[in-house]
Specification:
Strand content: 5-15%
CATH topology of one domain: Ubiquitin Conjugating Enzyme
Number of helices: 5
Order of helices and strands: EEEEHHHHH
Number of strands: 4
Radius of gyration: 43 Å
Strand order of the largest sheet: 1-2-3-4
Length: 180
């Protein structure tokens, strides 16, 4: 877009190639020709930017300075814009790489968490005996509670084996029943 004729001032919007999720970085450069252009570098500035960090803007300005100095005596706007275009594409690639690294880091962390879940206390004789004592105490407590509940509910019923052990007449009751 041409802004003025004297001195010649114009803007060029430079956009990177689309990255992941169609993300692009973009900048609008404003150039102003000096009287002795191309023997003198044009004035340039970044008018607007999109999805760029301050470090990236600083890098682009350094790139413009370097390219302008290298191309003194030649028409250089196309070269400057091309350099910025390449830099923006590099930035998009860096963003992709950064995201991939973050994704890999998260995967590594998740993997470490998974390993920690399966990594328990090593079993030694002392650990096992301590565990066994606690486990037996818990079982005994459960049996006591169950017996108390049965006594309170009046369900102190004996099992078949207990009945036979207590009353020996039941040993022969089936035989008597069959004889009758």
């Amino acid at each position: 877009t041409v802004l003025s004729e004297k001195p010649t001032t114009f803007t060029i919007t430079v956009t990177s190639e689309a990255g992941e999720n169609d993300e692009t970085v973009q900048t609008t450069l404003k150039f102003t020709y000096r009287e002795k252009y191309p023997d003198e570098t044009p004035l340039y500035e970044i008018v607007s930017q999109e999805n760029l960090d301050d470090n990236d803007v600083t890098d682009i300005i350094k790139l413009l300075e370097q390219q302008a100095e290298e191309n003194l005596g030649m028409v250089m706007i196309f070269t400057l814009v091309s350099g910025v275009q390449e830099k923006l594409n590099e930035i998009v690639d860096q963003i992709k790489t950064r995201r991939e690294e973050e994704k890999k880091q998260k995967e590594r962390e998740a993997e470490e968490e998974e390993k920690q879940r399966f990594h328990g206390t090593p079993v030694t004789i002392e650990n096992f005996l301590n565990w066994k004592a606690k486990f037996d105490a818990e079982l005994l407590e459960i049996k006591r509670k169950k017996m108390k509940e049965e006594e309170q509910a009046g369900k102190n019923k004996l099992s078949g084996k207990q009945l036979f052990e207590m009353d020996h007449n039941l040993d022969t009751s089936d035989i008597q029943f069959l004889e009758e």
